[in-house]
Amino acid sequence: xxxxxxxxxxxxxxxxxxVAIPQETKSTQTLTLQQAxxxxxxxxxxxxxxxxxIEQALGQKTTAGLLPNPVLSxxxxxxxxxxxxxxxxxxxxxxxxxxxxxxWPQVNAANAQVEAENLSLAxxxxxxxxxxxxxxxxxxxxxxxxxxxxxxxxxxxxxxxxGKIRLTDGDISGYEQQRIxxxxxxxxxxxxxxxxxxxxxRRRLSFLLDPTQSEMQxxxxxxxxxxxxxxxxxxxxxxxxxxxxxxxVNLEKLLAHALQNRPDLQAARATSRSRQAALSAAKWQxxxxxxxxxxxxxxxDDFKGAVVQVNLGF
Length: 314
Hints:
alpha+beta; 8 helices; 6 strands
């Protein structure tokens, strides 16, 4: 038989395998990049925890803004001395005065805390969105890589099988058959590593989208169209309106923009303002307790009139 070069044989088998090798049946349930991000923002536990912190901060804000309730009191004396009657009646209402200097710093502290928690939520959402996008893209391309390595490994598997037959027929040498077998092992190893990376990437994405699910129940859809969407394109600082001639990047402007607009730094500054406001409110609470009451007093001897009482703590 005519001697056939092994490289030409491999090209023939590669073209045949692309047509002959059956493709894996993919799940009909697919998930786009935007849907993956939406699921992560809906199910990730850290976001639920942060929303609970916001609810608590709003509750503290409502409590801090409440005005004190007045206190109504009634006092009566009914005295008797050898048939002589004596006594008095007092109707009064009182109000603590500390709210005059305690309420506004407490409200300011509560407002600052609500702002800090909202900015913290925005920062967590940003991180979860980034991690979901990253995990989705890694999972999609890991599947593409595994499929390509799997096809290549199948080609070399067929080549190795054919090589044994051709070695028996004398069409190729033992050295050439060993080279084909070595390439087969290398591609099988690469396919196994690609499969492991695919499994790990699917687990990472599944945890981000729904931590209660151990395995993904869908397949990532095409991602190229998603990245052409303007929602996933960053606007450069100081960029020119013309796309053909962008303005040069100014590192100082980039740094200033990052320090001003990064959600994590905004949340940190808001938290600092909240703690400073809480410290100011605590200082005002060190003032002594004070209250005032006013009412009407009537005695049995018909003396009657208004009464005022002021209480100051020490």
